[in-house]
Specification:
It is a single chain. By secondary structure, the chain is an alpha+beta fold. The chain has a single domain, classed as Ribosomal protein S16 (S16 Ribosomal Protein, Chain: A), CATH 3.30.1320.10. It contains four helices and six strands, in the order E-E-E-E-H-E-H-H-E-H. The protein has helices at residues 53-61, 68-76, 79-87, 120-131, and strands spanning 3-12, 15-24, 35-41, 47-51, 65-66, 100-101. Strands 5-1-2-3-4-6 form a six-stranded mixed sheet. A hairpin with a 2-residue loop joins strand 1 and strand 2. The model has no long low-confidence stretch (mean pLDDT 82).
């Protein structure tokens, strides 16, 4: 059985709320799971994460793989740095796990290029050419 730590979508329409779960990789995204490991609420500003470190480390020791999104979120809250220390046999108590992540910067809209105005000299030339 290939266990993955991934997000399970919950919440209302257009108001997502996610739970970190350990699930068999063959199960559906919102289907059966083995254990709840925390939650992630991206709708709050700043986004809030709560994790059960002991449970996550237990599953990682047993060989569970993380999805790309979970890996990214855990890196942002310093959980992966703590996991590396724990895996190396150190305590990892010096690393503090954050409960929020910084907001992503919003994409800037490209401004439309300003309309180029034709210089007056050129308009005079074209009007003279039209009259002759």
């Amino acid at each position: 059985m290939a266990v993955r730590i991934r997000l399970r979508r919950m919440g209302a329409k257009k108001r997502p709320f996610y739970r970190f779960v350990a699930a068999d990789s063959r199960y559906a995204r919102d289907g059966r799971f083995l254990e709840t490991l925390g939650y992630y609420n991206p709708m709050e500003r700043p986004a809030k994460l709560v994790v059960k470190e002991e449970s996550i480390f237990k599953w990682l020791k047993e060989g569970a793989q993380m999805s790309e999104t979970v890996n990214s979120l855990f890196r942002q809250i310093n959980l992966l740095a703590k996991w590396e220390k724990v895996k190396a046999g150190e305590s990892g108590d010096d690393i503090e796990i954050k409960t929020t992540i910084r907001e992503r910067s919003k994409k800037k809209k490209k401004k439309k290029p300003a309309t180029t105005e034709i210089p007056e000299a050129e308009t005079e030339k074209t009007s003279e050419a039209e009259t002759t």
